[in-house]
Amino acid sequence: MSDRDPVEQPRFRPAVQEVHQHQKEPVSPQTESAAYRLAFQDDEFLLRADLRPVRFQLELLKPELLLDEAKIASTFVFYGSARIPLARGSTGAHRCRDRRAHARRGRASRRQVALL
């Protein structure tokens, strides 16, 4: 057994080395084919609909790795919404009136669609 943690031992070459090695390959019809591209560099492949779960997993993994690198063990999450400050001298009453009128128009148009 070694003194190092087996999880930390590199088993694969870093992606940067993979890219450099791939660029050194001689140019041929085979190496120019889209099928020969490295998967992580192939946007057409990564953007396929069936890889959406993989992209979603990467979206979750990215902040987790960045937080780990920054040695941030925990965070707070605040739920709510941003508020835009009122202009000076404004009471905000006109905003409430506008929202109620907008809601009434939306309800009326939904009723009209339901009658059709």
Beta-strand content estimate? under 5%
Q: C-alpha Rg, in Å?
A: 27 Å
Principal-axis shape: elongated
Query: What is the structural class?
Result: mainly alpha
Distance between the termini: 76 Å
Q: Show unreliable segments.
A: none
Write the H/E string, N to C.
HHHHH
| Helical content class | 40-55%
Major sheet: size, sense and barrel closure?
Answer: none
Give the integer mean of the pLDDT values.
79
Instruction: Note the total helix count.
Output: 5
Give me the count of strands.
0
Can you walk through the features of this model?
- The chain has 116 residues and is mainly α.
- The protein has a domain at 15-69.
- It has helices at residues 15-23, 29-32, 43-46, 52-69, 93-115.
- The chain is elongated.
- It starts with 14 loop residues before the first helix and ends with a helix.
- The mean pLDDT is 79.
Q: Summed up, what is this model?
A:
The chain is mainly α and 116 residues long. It is built from five helices and no strands.
What keyword list fits this structure?
mainly alpha; 50% helix; 116 residues; single chain
Describe the secondary-structure layout.
Blueprint: H1 15-23, H2 29-32, H3 43-46, H4 52-69, H5 93-115
